[in-house]
Amino acid sequence: MTQSSSLSVKACAKINLGLEITGKRDDGFHELITIFQTVDLADELTVSLTDAGLQLSVSGDFPVPSDGSNLCLQAAEAYLQAAESEAGVSLHLLKRIPVGAGLGGGSSDAAAVLRALHRLIGAEVDLHALAAKLGSDVPFFLHSGTALGEGRGERLTPCPTLTTGHIVLAKPQLSISTREAYSLLEPADFSDGSRTRQLFDYGCSGEQLLDRSYLITNGFMYRLEKRWPELLRLREAMMDMEARLAMLSGSGSCVFAVFPTPCSAGRCGDMLATKGYWHHVGNMVHCNPDDK
């Protein structure tokens, strides 16, 4: 059999408009409460059905493994098994989202594979259950937009109010694994989640989340900025460019800032370019670009 069908899909990055770690579970995972928000920086995946086998090729700005450790292949295998399909899958990943940045690139890629295969094969499978087994952030990327995440991040409540803002992402040379970030936490870094939950409630009542930016916090930020002071210097430099908010995204190492106008965001991008930082100037988005 030759290639029978193919689909290209976007895999958007995310930022966290608030992230509180509320405790550690008996199974070793941490409980958290966060507000996920997708942005327009995106990887691109081309998913093709083939005769047999699973293959992944990778190109773009950020090299990642193309073996079985890649979540894209794990997602394809999980979907085919759940669908009881004997089809093969060929994947090509164009990587634009930096790795170890707290932007959810690997999770978003995995969700994009699930969405694409569901459109190509159309089997009656529980995508959310498959996504949750692949990673805590993966279920969010099945729908994207703005959502409250609880538990490990897999319990989701969409926010009906669209959050808008001009954003700048910036990443230093260092990358931080999720495991490493969690290992730095101490009990003093845990909180009850009330700030993030209050922020989400404002969004559900029709307010712009950024109008309550004083509630936005990140439970990783103190430890990570203490361990890597460059993160603090980067965040302060972005605030000095008239940002409404500058915050670590997820477990780092990317810092995002929100600006009132495209021009002010662009000026921040120019500043980051002179300092040699990887950066992206863009916007928040509210649906997967391929979901029409």
Structure, described:
The chain has 292 residues and is α+β, with helices and mostly antiparallel strands. It has one domain (1-292): Ribosomal Protein S5, domain 2, CATH 3.30.230. 29% of the residues lie in helices and 30% in strands. The protein has eight helices and ten strands. It has helices spanning 71-83, 105-121, 127-134, 178-183, 194-204, 221-227, 229-239, 262-274, and strands spanning 5-24, 30-50, 54-60, 88-95, 146-151, 155-158, 166-171, 245-248, 255-259, 278-283. The strands form two sheets. Strands 1, 2, 3, 4, 5 and 6 form a six-stranded mixed β-sheet that branches. It has a four-stranded antiparallel β-sheet with strand order 8-9-7-10, covered by helices on one side. The model has no long low-confidence stretch (mean pLDDT 93).
Strand and helix layout:
Layout: E1 5-24, E2 30-50, E3 54-60, H1 71-83, E4 88-95, H2 105-121, H3 127-134, E5 146-151, E6 155-158, E7 166-171, H4 178-183, H5 194-204, H6 221-227, H7 229-239, E8 245-248, E9 255-259, H8 262-274, E10 278-283
Parallel strand pairs: 3-4
Antiparallel strand pairs: 1-2, 2-4, 2-5, 5-6, 7-9, 7-10, 8-9
Helix pairs in contact: 1-2, 1-3, 2-3, 6-7
